[in-house]
Write a structure and sequence with these properties.
Layout lengths: L1 H12 L11 H18 L3 H10 L15 H15 L7 H10 L11 H12 L3 H15 L22 H13 L5 H25 L5
């Protein structure tokens, strides 16, 4: 698998991943490491999990692009073209493509295999915890979104709106993803990361003179 991984990294290094720091090469590296750990714990096939994790965001569509829900399907199609070009074993390709397509939150594709669940969990875990906080505010900055609503930071008198406020994204999406994790190992790690995020918000609320929900 090590020789294959070198090819996957080379493919990513030659791909325009865009300016989004939440989906740079470091993101892929983290997702692969998490996916390997989950796969080992759950007994999933590395031959499917590893290439799917390396190639899961091969086609990156910005968060505010109306085509966002198509990104995982486009990534799966591009991954298959690449894997066939390097003669990756054909028997694994359908499950790799499914794992890539099913990883996306916005696509709404239900994982049908253990490997797809592992890759989905690994990607969603990267949106939680300390790295999840960093990614959230990095993307908020890219989109021109403020950190929080200075009049009502934690939406006591308004609906959550993560198009306007970075903190709102924790409640609109991130905490919800922790509840969608499918593997036992993923749920355990997700609970730890979500708790850290709640501790962060409590501290943030203290520093800005408010109270987190």
């Amino acid at each position: 698998m090590r020789d294959w991984e070198a090819l996957f990294v080379k493919k990513l290094e030659g791909t325009d991943l865009g300016p989004d720091p939440a989906h740079d090469l470091a993101h892929f590296t983290r997702v692969v490491a998490t996916a390997k750990a989950l796969a080992a714990d759950e007994g999933a096939r590395m031959e499917v999990v590893v290439p799917a994790a390396w190639l899961h965001d091969l086609v990156n569509v910005p968060k505010n692009d109306p085509r966002r829900a198509q990104a995982s399907r486009l990534s799966a199609e591009e991954a298959l073209r690449f894997l066939r070009s390097v003669d990756y074993p054909e028997a694994f390709l359908p499950d790799i493509a499914h794992a890539i397509e099913a990883h996306s939150y916005s696509a709404g594709v239900e994982p049908r295999t253990l490997e797809a669940s592992v890759v989905q969990d690994a990607d969603r875990l990267d949106g939680l915890g300390a790295i999840g906080i960093a990614r959230c505010f990095a993307v908020s900055g890219m989109l021109g979104t403020r950190f929080y609503d200075p009049q009502d930071p934690f939406a006591a008198r308004r609906p959550w709106d993560d198009r306007e406020n970075g903190v709102d994204h924790f409640y609109v999406k991130l905490f919800k993803t922790a509840d969608t994790l499918r593997t036992a190992a993923g749920r355990r790690e997700g609970a730890r990361r979500a708790e850290f995020m709640r501790q962060y918000l409590t501290r943030l609320a203290l520093e800005i003179g408010d109270s987190a929900p």
